[in-house]
Amino acid sequence: xxxxxxxxxxxxxxxxxxxxxxxxxxxxxxxxxxxxxxxxxxxxxxxxxxxxxxxxxxxxxxxxxxxxxxxxxxxxxxxxxxxxxxxxxxxxxxxxxxxxxxxxxxxxxxxxxxxxxxxxxxxxxxxxxxxxxxxxxxxxxxxxxxxxxxxxxxxxxxxxxxxxxxxxxxxxxxxxxxxxxxxxxxxxxxxxxxxxxxxxxxxxxxxxxxxxxxxxxxxxxxxxxxxxxxxxxxxxxxxxxxxxxxxxxxxxxxxxxxxxxxxxxxxxxxxxxxxxxxx
Amino acid sequence: xxxxxxxxxxxxxxxxxxxxxxxxxxxxxxxxxxxxxxxxxxxxxxxxxxxxxxxxxxxxxxxxxxxxxxxxxxxxxxxxxxxxxxxxxxxxxxxxxxxxxxxxxxxxxxxxxxxxxxxxxxxxxxxxxxxxxxxxxxxxxxxxxxxxxxxxxxxxxxxxxxxxxxxxxxxxxxxxxxxxxxxxxxxxxxxxxxxxxxxxxxxxxxxxxxxxxxxxxxxxxxxxxxxxxxxxxxxxxxxxxxxxxxxxxxxxxxxxxxxxxxxx
Lengths: 279, 264
Known about the structure:
By secondary structure, chain A is of the alpha/beta class. Chain A is built from nine helices and twelve strands.
């Protein structure tokens, strides 16, 4: 049973819905627990992506995952974007809507990257206010993901895990906890990822993300292009011990292998959970 | 930070560029960004800077495979670099990043064979628009059969939403389809041609047209009654009676599902 404070369900072990797998999914209807879709890919299309999504929604639970909410930006909230996001959530009967703790652009320009934020009292107040506004509008649970980051701002006055914990409490929002991102950011910034895992408010974790990454030696890039490494599985087990059974999703976005390979990687999470439970 | 990320040059030039330097002089970068054990502050900013152009290139390469094939990876990347300086993304989606690429190519003095590339870009933009257009069911054979014979002359036909008509000066449809099919594209010479891009059962198709076919389809798409459209095309053709030829084309278009309704 999921222990999050909203009693949002443990959907099991899902995978991200990707174009290259459309044919396989429609033909074989694989026994996947649930799918996560990239919201922006389905907002403005009336073609095949929407057709496939409708087929998927008839058979599987779905959650929305966005990359353009830009919750940390100083630009005004994009209400047209939110209107379409809300309509898509209703259409798909999404269990929740997620996006990232980041900003993606400013002055109307979108870099389409998940840019890091300075962790200060000012940015915390700013982001809490925006999360509340967006949550009220969506009328559906909004959960935020810790992004992988490649730099830290000198003016920050708190660690990322403190910022995200306080944000979740003050804005009363859930968390999409990406343990691979914790590993990536910890490597890049030189801190112990276990500190991060242990500091997150467990009752606010609604979903997990898992993915592979690319280690460049001097830094790690969150490429979603490989298998999950053992150290990330260890972090997953450690976090799962605190949160209890929670919806878990594998992301694979580059060099995407067959659907069976991606699904098998997602199902490893079940075995890690069982190992943890037996320990 | 945004100004640095989207700057077209190297990251050193990006932090020193006027827009970025006005916010933060380059020598004070370390006051904003911490170094890591292995990377300087500048190198860490450089990670984001490098990924921006890569992301823009990947998005445009997906929508413009023919352009990428013709120009090659390096020239295509330089085109993307110039393009996003003029037309950066202002949308929550990258799907429409390339909407201005045809007009940019038309005016870009640095490109060879701009006439051909402009036509190719127009075609590839039309394909993306047709791919994402709203789904509108084509008229059924029963609906066509139900139109009284005497009503056809004044009938107006409305194309499906996933429908784009193009008149080109180069045979870009053949070129683009060869690239898509991983075949050797034909040699490109100037040759007027006409094509309709449409979607059926969620697949995107090209249908080559004659000049007369293009004129008739364009007149119908603009809302002219059938008889009036045919007469106008026949008059322009000055080739005797061509109504039978036009009716045959019209019947073919109905059968492939180019129209969503017949109003009479």
